[in-house]
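idk why but the lab printer keeps eating my pages so im just putting this in chat instead. protein + D-xylitol-5-phosphate:
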Amino acid sequence: PLETIIAPSILSADFGKLGRECIDTIEHGADWLHVDIMDGHFVPNLTFGAPVVTKIRERVPRPSTAMGKGTFDCHMMISEPHKWVADFKKAGCDLYCFHYEAAISSTAAESPEAKSDEKTTPKKLIKYIHSHGMKAGIAIKPSTPVDVLWDILEDSDEDARPDMVLVMTVEPGFGGQSFMASELPKVTALRGKYPNLPIEVDGGLSEKTIDQAADAGANVIVAGSAVFGAKDPADVISKLRAAVDS
Ligand code: DX5
Ligand code: ZN
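predcted complex ->
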């Protein structure tokens, strides 16, 4: 049974009172917090790092079950994602979602240090994340075809397979962009093969676009501006959930 998960992106929260915003969002009915980490290199924007995650973790109760309420879903829009696994585990991240494009990037592959490194291919990185006691997610940008994921999802070693796939429905980097329905066939293809795989969509999700995403088969819904820009965030969260459940 595939659960509907609403994961508001705190990128659109008021960073001046981030702890309070996180507590409120969970109280408004959110399942997870989607935590966007940007390094100004993989994407043309900066957010924050592990010290901030540590401090919001102190204010938001930890999930009592794997991927349960209060899960910190860290979306790592960063180059060299293997470098931050230990720090984010320590900070309280539950689900470490890296970008496929970053894990296979020439920078990582070409550095002599990385070449012999056991953490830099997607499968190795997934195992490395698991070895730290976190769930592993793999994200793809709009320009990346879904076909790159089949080999990873079908690996004979369960430990090398991701616990979630994130299909970006905007170019990563900024909140408040327009939803790209062109990405939904990726969700449909994934759902067709994997009825029980958590599939997350991120970017431009709102009451206007949720039905298309849900019809394609997404069950983990990120929404930043739609939730934090609303007069009644609890109402938006419950409407998004109802749309996926129906
Ligand atoms: C974009 C981020 C998203 C963003 C979504 O790079 O990964 O999580 O916060 O914001 P909205 O929902 O406003 O498109
Ligand atoms: Zn995100």
